[in-house]
Amino acid sequence: xxxxxxxxxxxxxxxxxxxxxxxxxxxxxxxxxxxxxxxxxxxxxxxxxxxxxxxxxxxxxxxxxxxxxxxxxxxxxxxxxxxxxxxxxxxxxxxxxxxxxxxxxxxxxxxxxxxxxxxxxxxxxxxxxxxxxxxxxxxxxxxxxxxxxxxxxxxxxxxxxxxxxxxxxxxxxxxxxxxxxxxxxxxxxxxxxxxxxxxxxxxxxxxxxxxxxxxxxxxxxxxxxxxxxxxxxxxxxxxxxxxxxxxxxxxxxxxxxxxxxxxxxxxxxxxxxxxxxxxxxxxxxxxxxx
Length: 290
Fold this sequence. Notes:
Layout: H1 2-29, H2 37-58, H3 60-68, E1 71-72, H4 79-95, E2 101-105, E3 112-115, E4 123-127, H5 128-133, H6 136-151, H7 154-184, H8 194-234, H9 236-246, H10 281-289
Parallel strand pairs: 2-4
Antiparallel strand pairs: 1-2, 3-4
Helix pairs in contact: 1-8, 2-7, 4-6, 6-8, 6-9, 7-8, 8-9, 9-10
């Protein structure tokens, strides 16, 4: 639950910051966005909604390297590193994408992730625990899974989806705030009242939670596709064995910005399933066997 709470908190904090910036612009320039009609408000909401997502996507590799302590293999120093780079190169050619950067991060948990704004200039990183615990055929299956994410453009699609949802969260929250401020609280002033600000913030929290549910739903669907891609690249049996190995690990504590990009993030029950970025491993294994 802690991971889910932090995931929600991060998204809501971004929306809250955007709201404060919008209110600040309104105060400085003396312009009430609602006066420009819904069209003008939607344009401003899109600029802010997509702006944050696209900036996050552009910085994804840089952020991942620093937050996870990824050591990029520029010149292999061991036989294992030479094999790892060679395996990624071979699988990338099969997936018809450019050779990504290959890195290792220190973690006892078995995990891996892929990120990057462009499919031909991405980053694939695996944990030291995964390399120690899995056989090479199982590691190749995990690499195939991650390279399928890149080939499918999942990072870009997820960023665009988040941008669309952020846009409508900002837009609808301000519409709701305006209705409450004028129709219910009877604010007849030219500018916005306190009711507008408070209502908008509350509406953004509620709508932001609903948006997170949609993003997590999409993230779970793409994991099934990535598993199929990993099976196509390395063999269904190897992919199933890799997922069975991951069941022994609870999913290491990855930063919230990277939760959706790791192959193993643990599980959840009850309503918490709505905020899972990955389906339960048993469901993923069953889907491959079927």
